[in-house]
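User: Quick one: structure for sequence A, then sequence B.

Assistant: Sequence A:
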Amino acid sequence: MNDEILTWNEIVEKYPDMYVFVQNYIADGPNIRSGVVAEAVKPEDFDEADIRWYTSGADYIHSYTGSDDRCMVIWG
């Protein structure tokens, strides 16, 4: 990874079917418009990476670059 700012479409092309952790981002709510990919992980490595980023205190946002059918919404 480098400090290159990418659009969401460029991130999807460069990191297909991966969870990306993005810094220096521009977002509309939860939707990433652009940013710097600090880390990209396969779905099976997401939990470990998510905990690491959450406890780091770093300013970041994350999302999945694959199809939406992997995402599950739980309504309370």
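Sequence B:
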Amino acid sequence: MDSHMIKRIRSFNRYYTIWLEVMNKEYLETDFSWTESRILFEIHISPGINATELCEHFNMDKGYMSRILRKFEKQRILTREQILGSKGLKKIYLTKAGEKIVHQINTNGDRQIADKLKGVDDATCIQLCEAMEFIKKVLSENEKGGMPE
């Protein structure tokens, strides 16, 4: 891969993160950052996940994750339950208040995408989705050990 390709990919990444508004302090009209929203969503789709698994999934520093989880616990949007026989490992679950927040984030996220693409016809949206699926496939297969030649 040459430097021109790298610059094009990085340019797209910068554009896309701005387009998604992930740097907005109140992401999707909530009191949560993009990182916090993603962690809440992951707990939502993986009830009982533990902090170590979250760190591995997001490739995130344990101290940073710990601060976010403590904040959520103080806000009563998640609970932690000791795993029997473990040395301090705890399963993490969203409370009803946490589930309500995830629902709000999902609803606002759906509305955001619909609003941003309201002027795009269905055929173009299909092409866009196919391109995104292709990107995901290439990146995923490369991560698993490389694309076939």
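The mean pLDDT is 93. The radius of gyration is 18 Å.

User: Thanks, that's what I needed.
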